[in-house]
Specification:
By secondary structure, the protein is an alpha/beta fold. The chain is built from 9 helices and 7 strands. The chain has a 7-stranded mixed beta sheet with strand order 3-2-1-4-5-7-6, sandwiched between helices. A hairpin with a 4-residue loop joins strand 6 and strand 7. The longest helix has 45 residues.
Length: 252
């Protein structure tokens, strides 16, 4: 019995890795397919509130963004809206912001919006970033972290590349409680896929969205995971009645 249990562990781990890889490839394919309509759908489906969320989150890190020598990385950057919000606070002589995503089509769209001398686009997996240890001062991720196949691995990878004293900021959806939560889930599960299909011609990416939000850890769970990964001063600030929120933490 004992020998069987010991032998099963690597098999289980290998199966888990394969599951994560297939999930990651499916998400990558999906985002590449919706890239041409991604920005329009985001703004329509959120009634442009998403723009306010990006700007508000970026302002929280103004102190580090104003430092010309600071290295800033926008992880899972999509088409670069969070990157643009960060650039609003970068000085003219500041280092370019690194915009990283694994969906090629999303980066292509982002490059059309981002000033080439102020942002560097990198096509890479957020779980294996081609960035040296302890070289980044700030890592942000807006509505992309939720799509990672392994949240714990994502947090630990962020911590790896951060300098001591570096900060992370994860802006993402959450599920409110009570009557607002019920309305929110109805909109996400019934209305949003129909609008998405009408605009993009496909409802499956917008059926994926409510599922991804539902499986995303609650704020208390996320804060625990951040602490377990070695971050300190972990906090969550709700935006718009808890529909979204900003997670922050520091590498010490």
């Amino acid at each position: 019995m004992s020998n069987f249990a010991k032998g099963a562990e690597p098999v289980d781990r290998a199966a888990a890795i394969l599951d994560e890889q297939s999930a990651s490839q499916a998400v990558q394919t999906m985002f590449n397919s919706i890239a041409p309509r991604y920005d329009l759908l985001n703004h329509v489906l959120s009634a442009n509130i998403d723009r306010l969320w990006w700007r508000r989150a970026a302002r929280e890190f103004r102190a580090v963004l104003l430092r010309p020598e600071a290295t800033v990385l926008d992880m899972c950057c999509g088409t670069g809206d969070m990157t643009l919000a960060l650039l609003r606070h970068r000085p003219a002589n500041g280092r370019p912001v690194i915009a990283l995503d694994f969906a090629h089509a999303m980066l292509v769209r982002g490059k059309q919006k981002l000033p080439s001398h102020k942002a560097i686009a990198i096509e890479a997996d957020a779980l294996q970033m081609p960035v040296a240890d302890a070289t980044v001062d700030l890592i942000t991720s807006a509505f992309g972290f939720r799509n990672l196949a392994n949240y714990q691995a994502g947090l630990c990878e962020m911590r790896r590349v951060l300098r001591v004293g570096g900060e992370i900021g994860i802006l993402d959806f959450s599920e409110p409680d009570g009557a607002l939560g019920a309305m929110y889930r109805f909109y996400f599960s019934r209305i949003l896929p129909r609008i998405g299909r009408a605009i993009s011609g496909s409802s499956s990416p917008y059926e994926y969205l409510p599922r991804s939000v539902h499986r995303f850890p609650s704020p208390s769970e996320m804060l625990r995971m951040m602490t377990d990964c070695g971050f300190s001063n972990a906090s969550w600030t709700p935006y718009t009645f808890g529909i979204a929120g900003l997670y922050r933490a520091v590498k010490t």
